[in-house]
Write a structure and sequence with these properties.
The complex is a heterodimer of chains A (201) and B (397). Chain A is α/β, with parallel strands linked by helices. Chain A is built from five helices and eight strands; from the N terminus they run H-E-E-H-E-E-E-E-H-E-H-E-H. In chain B, the strands form four sheets. A three-stranded antiparallel sheet of chain B has the order 3-4-5. In chain B, a hairpin with a 5-residue loop joins strand 9 and strand 10. In chain B, 56% of the residues are buried. The chains are: A alpha/beta (201), B alpha+beta (397).
Chain lengths: 201, 397
């Protein structure tokens, strides 16, 4: 567990990070959103850390947290190293309710694409330049962000139809170099068909 | 849908929806493909059909009340999730568990791992049309289910681990039952290998299908058997050992090609390694306490509660207020059957968790699904999907 003691001063001078006082059992640093991408590129590529794997992106809402003053949200990135097994580090970025924006790292780690979508879905935090910021766990028609502390756990919503994935599919085709010249149409069931099913004689 | 391919060809692609209720999409998930004939040009996945708001529910109860919810994450190896969660909370208390608890947890962990791998390979065999392989594997799994039933009273969503101990001690004859399972599992494994190893149909459907490069798998955050199948010997039980895993004699299984065949075979080989660990653990199992003696963490037993007032108060406080986990934030990952199951816990020092975030291993594997199947046939996507072992309970939480 000595690697962090040598790594931290480097991070401190280079990226002006501070130690996270709430991490008593593992290693965590608090970074500013402006240096986040540079910090993560350094953590991923530098020989001293080699954090090749992004395990998780965690959103936290501190609304009403005991004796807490500061921005309402935080996004936490959990990394681990494969070249040096056993080395882990977390990076935390605070996000205020006013701007709600963090730069995306989905181009640095492909898995961040879905993990950031989940944080957006649950907390409404926007990831700047994310290629496909849609809901992931909740329904497309869902309103609000359920893991925020001010979202009542018992609130119910009427949700009707599946996510029409065709726009996402066309986006994927275009990212692979295909050019869509003729689109397929979405067949939306009318109100009666919700009861009888959309396949008719 | 008419498209122009990068090489200038004009293609007429057919959008095809698979799932959410489809025999091949185990659990409940959906993928939407653009097909050129029978081959997949592009695909996108949709998850969330089994989203029950685990993380929101966890914030509403006490720390102990999260334990039964964790069974519903990976319900094919329910008790492994309990143990991973309890381990994360126990690490925040920095407590030392009794020897017997540690050994029992190792046994339960490894039996769950065997059951989980059995289901994954059995379901994959079923999807490829081999009912024989399915039944050989389900035979030994059924014996494990009977042990779970005797141990916890439930077959599927059983919770056995508690913060600071276990639900209760084992029953008379537990050791014999476990040994019998190990023996039967070995026999069934021989039969399964006889079914598959030289089976032309099985090999044609799995070898070279849905392959993943090790560097790419690491970028995608793959862990567990899927990562090991690509050739990366990464296993938390060796890298960051807990519960004395380092003192057992066993090997990390790795594959070479990272295709469907390797993923399934790594799982079968891991069953053998788990049997080794279980046998060694059974030899070490000696009678002793299973709970730590601290009424602030582990609820005092009934026998004590009926004898003295402090234990009675301890029981009340523990149930009404929950254990007071020290304030702070912590990430703790454990090696579950599917990969690294991680819990990010935020505590404000009260009896209720402020935030419980699960890092489900199959989330990362399904995120990479499009890379695995694009360019291959639609039928191969079925084989690929069953080999990455998607458990919708932990995928969607």
């Amino acid at each position: 567990m000595n690697f962090f003691e040598t790594l931290f001063p480097v991070l401190e001078t280079k990226f002006n990070v501070e130690k996270d006082a709430s991490a008593h059992w593992d290693h965590s640093v608090i970074a500013k959103a402006s240096v986040l991408r540079d910090l993560i590129i350094f953590l991923r590529d530098d020989e001293s850390s080699k954090m090749e794997m992004l395990l998780d992106v965690v959103g936290i809402d501190y609304l009403g947290f005991q004796d807490y003053e500061g921005p309402r949200f935080a996004v936490e990135y959990v990394f681990k190293s494969i070249s040096h097994p056993g080395r882990r580090v977390r990076v935390k970025v605070f996000v205020s309710e006013q701007d709600l924006e963090v730069p995306t790292i989905s181009d640095l780690y492909p898995i961040a694409n879905w993990q950031e979508r989940e944080v957006y879905d649950q907390y409404g935090i926007l990831f700047k330049d994310h290629p496909d910021l849609r809901r992931i766990l909740n329904h497309v028609e869902f309103e609000g962000h359920p893991l925020r502390k001010d979202y009542p756990a018992h609130r119910r919503q009427w949700l009707s139809t599946n996510d029409f994935l065709l726009p996402a599919l066309e986006k994927r085709l275009e990212s692979k170099g295909y050019k869509v010249v003729q689109h397929s149409k979405e067949v939306l069931p009318n109100e009666d068909e919700y009861l009888t099913g959309s396949i008719q004689e | 849908m008419k498209v122009i391919a990068p090489n200038g060809d004009k293609l007429n692609l057919m959008p095809l929806n698979v799932g959410p209720s489809h025999g091949a999409t185990h659990g409940c998930l959906r993928y939407f493909c653009a097909l050129d004939g029978e081959s997949i040009v592009a695909t996108v996945g949709e998850i969330g059909y089994l989203h029950r708001g685990f993380e929101k529910m966890a914030e509403r109860g006490t720390w102990q009340q999260v334990v039964p919810y964790t069974d519903r994450l990976n319900y094919c190896s329910a008790m492994m999730n309990n143990i991973a969660y309890c381990r994360a909370v126990e690490n925040m208390f920095q407590m030392e568990l009794p020897e017997r608890t540690k050994i029992l947890r190792v046994i339960i962990n490894e039996l769950s791992r065997m059951a989980d791998h059995c289901i994954c390979v059995a379901a994959a065999a079923q999807d490829l049309g081999s009912t024989t392989g399915f039944f050989y594997l389900f035979d030994s799994r059924e014996m494990m289910m009977v042990i779970w039933e005797k141990l916890t009273g439930a077959r599927l969503t059983n919770s056995y681990s508690r913060i600071g101990g276990l639900y209760r001690d084992t029953y008379d004859g537990f050791e014999e039952d476990v040994l019998a399972v190990c023996k039967q599992a070995e026999k069934n494994l021989r039969d399964v290998h006889a079914c598959f190893d030289r089976n032309r149909i099985f090999l044609d459907r799995t070898v070279g299908i849905g392959a993943m490069k090790p560097e790419r798998a690491i970028q995608w955050g793959w862990t567990g058997p899927c990562l090991r199948a690509t050739g990366v010997a990464s296993d938390l039980r060796k890298d960051e050992p807990y519960y004395d895993y380092e003192t057992y004699d066993w090997n990390v299984v790795t594959g070479t090609a990272g295709d469907v065949y390797d993923r399934l075979m790594v799982r079968l080989a891991e069953i053998e390694e788990s049997i080794k660990i279980v046998r060694q653990a059974l030899k070490r199992l000696t009678p002793g306490p299973i709970d730590i003696m601290d009424p602030r963490i582990r609820v005092p037993s009934h026998a004590l509660a009926y004898q003295d007032i402090e234990s009675l108060i301890g029981r009340f406080k523990s149930v009404y207020e929950g254990v007071r986990v020290p304030a702070g934030e912590y990430y703790c990952g454990s090696e579950a059957a599917n990969g690294e199951l991680g819990f990010t816990l935020v505590s404000d020092g009260s009896g209720k968790p402020w935030r419980v975030k699960v890092r489900p291993p199959c989330f990362t594997q399904f995120a990479a699904f499009q890379e695995l199947v694009e360019g291959s046939m639609l039928t191969d996507s079925v084989a690929t999907l069953s080999s990455i072992n998607i458990i919708a309970g932990e995928l969607d939480r």
